[in-house]
Amino acid sequence: MIARLLAGRERLILGAFLLVLVVVPPFFSGFLLALVTQALILAILSMSLDIILGYTGLASLGHAAYLGIGAYAVGILSTRYGAGFWTVLLVGVLGAAVVAAVFGLIALRATGVYFLMITLALGMVVWGLAHRWVSVTSGDNGIASVPRPRLGLGLPWSFSDAVPFYYLALVAFLLAFTLLRVVVSSPFGQTLVGIRESESRMRTLGYHVWLHKYIGFVIAGAVGGFAGVLWSYYNGFVSPADLELATSVETLLMVALGGRGTLYGPALGAAVIVLLKNLVSVYTHRWLLILGAVYIGTIVYAPEGIVGAIRQWTERTRRDKAWSSG
Amino acid sequence: MEFLLIQLFNGVSYGALLFLLAGGLSLIFGMMRIVNMTHGSYYLLGGYVALTVIWRSGYFVLGLLAAMLVIACIGIAEWNAFLKRLSGQELGQVLTTMGFALIFQDLALVVWGGDPYTIPQPKFLSGSLRAGNLFLPTYRIFIVAVAAAVAIVLWLVLGRTRIGAMMRATVDDPEMARGVGINVHAISMGVFAMGAMLAAVAGVVAGGFVGVYPGADFEILPYAFVVVIMGGMGSLKGALIGSLIVGLLDNFGKALFPELSYFTLFAPMAIILAVRPTGLFGRA
Questions:
Q1: How high is the ipTM of this complex?
Q2: DSSP state string for B45-70
Q3: Which residues of B touch A133 (CB under 8 A)?
Q4: pLDDT tens by residue, A243-283
């Protein structure tokens, strides 16, 4: 299935990546394994944002809200009601989808700067509830001691251990990647790209532009919620800090840094940011300065992201070769 | 009744503070369509610069002026070096200005440390006025007066002067404005500097009652955005009314429904947007 969705050389590179992700990490130190697990989970979030930012061309500043809904679904249901993995997963993903469906009704009336501002404010609504609705969310203290999931299914591993949880995150990542890849290569996904390139042309062609954007928006929200469920299980802790504005902007950075509209670009962006944040903070307390410089540098030096820069470079060398041989 | 009046007064004075912060932001949005995440940093840095100057010199006014000057220069530098090239690229603007916001946040931490400070209020503004059974802090009345003065000056400049007409023309249609010989570049830079300067003023006066502390930048930024969204980008009247609504909603929300206080702030905004996507006084 997935093989048909990928071009030849792309398949080779992604296959190699996958092989490395399956084989190597169990030999990593605990710290590095934790970082790779984090990167995989946040990659799900950044890929979901890529659906609206990269493919549809709408910059959302409130995507952390969906991460938060998934995360709080785990926090509240598993600590207070002892709910199991599958129940929580269902509630988290559906909850995020429902919230996205409501937010989409408001946000998609606007485009450009207005869309950005409205999604920011809607994200703040969710943050405000997490921050202040203390009787449900425990406010700033957050919800601690979220147990690691038990999947049932007769699996022999305990997901309290780092290595099995890593593989859980890897499977979730591959699932999300495949799903989103199917979405963007489907005719529906192509209409999203069409809307990004020229909304008026798509409307003239007879497409229901609003509905297409709306469906994309809800899918992105639901997958964002999926990332939130895993994020909360991974940390064992949920707090309003998970869904503040800075998280939303950081997710935007992951997408932009990796390369918009490519799916694996944003996944790569997530990995780079997670590694950078954690490794730099080992060496210096001034990692915010460096993160800030990465924000600015991305826009100045790599506006199309890492993947975009690599594509440009390979195209140029191919052209040079054709030039010198011709 | 007393509770109501006190909350009303607190709401209005907080609204006045928000107007100082959001008035400039709204004009920047309206004119250049720049999403500026650094606006909260101007507020924070303004407070810190004033604090240092007041410690050294002992004069509140000197601190205020220094903060205005320094922050206006930072704004001009940032706009010239980066932002003016990013017109129409919302993503680029958000990420660049967020980068600056993080850098400023960290630099402020290096220079001024992590402790919260309060800017010493000038003598004649400390104490409170008595009106019936109510005691109203003079400093909060001062904030309302400053905001009112700024609103009137801006309104006169925008509505009654040649340069104001040029600014309005640039908001309405930058291309036509350029076509009739208005120096859109200079006007835009001036408005950006003025917005940054007003944010610094807000930071200094806020330093007198909520203090200056790390994190204040990202705490207040969403409020400024909500004001601009509610009122409509580029509209001075919108910024004024939006500030009052947000100030009152925030105060009454926190007093009456403490658990849902942010919800009572953001939900009405969502409703306004559902009816008018461009805000109360904004134009598409």
A1: 0.84
A2: HHHHHHHHHHHHH--HHHHHHHHHHH
A3: 259-260, 263
A4: 888 899 999 999 999 999 888 899 999 999 999 888 888 88
